[in-house]
Amino acid sequence: MINYLQKLLLVCFLLPTFCNASNEQVLNWTQQTLLKTLTLNYKNLDNQLESVKPNYTPEAWEDLRSFLGDKFVAIRDNQLVLHPTAIKTRQLIVQQGFENIIYWRVNQGIKVPELNLNLYFSAVVVKSNKPSYLIQSLTVTKESIN
Questions:
Q1: Prediction pTM value
Q2: Rounded Cα distance, 63 and 51, in Å
Q3: Fewer CB atoms < 10 Å away: N or C end of the chain?
Q4: Per-residue pLDDT tens for 99-121?
Q5: CA pair distance 116, 119, nearest whole angstrom
Q6: What is the spatial distance between Cα 96 and Cα 101, in angstroms, rounded to a whole number?
Q7: Where would one find the signal peptide in this protein (predicted)?
Q8: In the chain, what are the domains?
Q9: What percent of the chain clears pLDDT 70, i.e. is strictly above it?
């Protein structure tokens, strides 16, 4: 029983240390990935989207594409070049899931002035090999700005 308690205490102390070591990296990576995803130019929209696609699981990518689908039409039709900026709404929640897999939920706001929108992302991020992280799932809400 004592041996079990010692192991439990050790895990309780080491797990947060492990997570904290990369929390800032996860926040920064997620923010940069979302900004790069939304930095779009009507001239090479498809190539830009293909370059960021490896940062997403197929499910997360499909969610993003279906949410932004009509925006892609507006970008092409209006010959827009998007210049998104991060809104200071970053939030990180470290979670431990099935079989002790650690993942992060990152909430990040992005302002896209050319579309008159603030987009609020909630992304589940997991550790990966290449790229170093992967957006596993993604929900997006939008707010019109005038």
A1: 0.81
A2: 17
A3: C
A4: 777 889 999 999 999 999 999 99
A5: 10
A6: 6
A7: 1-21
A8: 24-144 (3.10.450)
A9: 86
